[in-house]
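Sequence only, no structure available. Ideas?
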Amino acid sequence: MPIIARTKSDMGIYHIILRGINRQSIFDEDVDRERFIETMVKYREKCAYGVLGYCLRGNHVHLLLKEEKENISQAMKRIISSYVYWYNRKYERCGHLFQERYKSEPVSSDAYLLTVLRCIHQNPLKAQIISDLSSYIRRGGSLCGFS
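Reply:
I predicted one. Tokens follow.
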């Protein structure tokens, strides 16, 4: 089956979703989440993309990214490859870490941008990992924020 081309966003903003293969954990320790964020920061400087929001859960990731210098596909390739290489070395494993291609939903309006940002940051609340949004930063396997 051929790969379907991703829909481009007129605003250059995308809601990215990555899920662990077989819904397995992709962040076993806090240091894994920290490494994923360090990887995003490293390539943000290199690829010049904006991070508008994120939520790192145990077995999946939500990112809200704005492409600038490079297209979002190139930036995601760099982030994913680097993190999987590090993760596989750390846990002495090989093979895929993420299930299928990452999903990307183009953001096409300011109203939808706010909706997606709210959904990303409310993800731990909806999953009942936290009881209120003020206990947001680190709790129960989640890390959320924006820059």
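The beta strands are 13-19, 50-56, 60-66, 103-107, 138-139, 142-145.
Hope that gets you unstuck.
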